[in-house]
Amino acid sequence: MDVTQAKQEHLLALKGDLFGQLMREDPSTIKGAETLMLGEMLTLPQNFGNIFLGETFSSYISVHNDSNQVVKDILVKADLQTSSQRLNLSASNSAVAELKPECCIDDVIHHEVKEIGTHILVCAVSYTTQYGEKLYFRKFFKFQVLKPLDVKTKFYNAETDEVFLEAQIQNITTSPMFMEKVSLEPSMMYNVTELNMVACGEDGESTFGKMSYLQPMDTRQYLYCLKPKPEYAEKAGVIKGVTVIGKLDIVWKTNLGERGRLQTSQLQRMAPGYGDIRLSLEMIPDTVNLEEPFDIICKITNCSERTMDLVLEMCNTRSIHWCGVSGRQLGKLSPAAFLSLPLTLLSSVQGLQSISGLRLTDTFLKRTYEYDDIAQVCVVCPYTSNES
C-alpha cells in the first residue's frame, strides 16, 4: 500500500509540473506571470473557498421547479450573515405569482465585502403547492473573508513643515495581484505630491516598471510628500497640532480580473514637538568654499502662547565661525508670529560640517534655548595645486 501510494503521489507531482511547464511554454501567457493563468489554457477556481476584504462578492441564485406541479407565491430571499450584522441582498422582496414545472427563478446578488471573518449566505425559499400547502426551506453557504494586504506606514516630519509618508504594502494572498492604483487622499490642510514616478518622456514612468504585478508575500514602498496649503503654512500653531494626514486608497485586480478596493482609516502622525521656539532654515547653500563667508536665512517662530523678547547669541565651534555681533536684540515676538533672520558665517575645516552654536534667550523668563546641528553644509577647497 505504501509503495502504491508513493507512486500515485509521484505521478501527481509529475502532472502538476507538466501543467506548469505547459503554462510557461504557452505563447499567449504573460512571461513571468504564468500563475495568473490567463493564457489559452484558462483555468477556473477549483472551489468556492475564500474571498478577500475589499472585493465584491457576487453569486448567481437559481430556484428550479423539479416537480410536475405548478407552485405559487414563490418568495426567494438571500441574506448574508456576518459576525456583526445580517444583510438582505435580494434584488426584489416581492413574491413570484407562479412557477411552472422545469422553470426557474434566477437572481444575481452583489455585495462589497467590508468585514473579515466567517460569512454565511442564507438562501430561503417559501412557496405554496397546488393543494394550498405552504412550504419553506433554506440552504447555507459558508465562506471566509481574508485580509489581502498588509499596510504599514511611516511618517517623517521635515523642518519645512513638509510631511513625508512611506507606505509599505505587502501582498499576503497566495496569488499575484495587479496594483491598479495606490493614492493618498490628503486632509483639508495639505496638498500631496506622489514620489513614485521617474521622469521619462511626457508622462513619466512608474518606479516599479511597466508590469505592476505584486507577487505573493512581496512588498512595495510608496512615497508621498505633503505640504501645508498656503492659507495654513504661516499658522505655526495650527500646523504644529495637525495629526490627521489623510487616507490611502488602494485598488487592485486578482487572477481573473476581479477588482478589489481598500481605503485605510485616517492616518495619524505624532505631532512634532517644537517647544516654545522653533528655529528652521529658509535658505542655505549646498556647497561653500573653505574660509569664505556664506549666508543663510533662519526662520524663528514663536510656538508658545505668550509674547517673547529675544536676544541672539552666536557661539563659534571648532569648524564654524559666525560673522557679526553676538548678543543682539531681536525684539518682541508675539504668539504664532515669526521673523526671518539673515546670518553670515564661514568654515575653517573641509568636508561635511554641521552648523551649530545659536542661542536664543527670552529676557522675560530668563530662559535660553540652544540650537545645535541645525543643518549641514559641504565645505570644499576652491584652490587646486598643479604638481609636476
TrEMBL record:
Residues 285-379 form the Trafficking protein particle complex subunit 13 C-terminal domain. PANTHER family: TRAFFICKING PROTEIN PARTICLE COMPLEX SUBUNIT 13. GO terms for cellular component: TRAPPIII protein complex. Belongs to the TRAPPC13 family. Coiled coil: none annotated. Pfam families: TRAPPC13_C (PF23643), TRAPPC13_M (PF23647), TRAPPC13_N (PF06159). Residues 15-145 form the Trafficking protein particle complex subunit 13 N-terminal domain. Part of the multisubunit TRAPP (transport protein particle) complex. Transmembrane segments: none annotated. InterPro entries: TRAPPC13, TRAPPC13_C, TRAPPC13_M, TRAPPC13_N. This is Trafficking protein particle complex subunit 13. It comes from the Eukaryota. Residues 149-272 form the Trafficking protein particle complex subunit 13 middle domain.
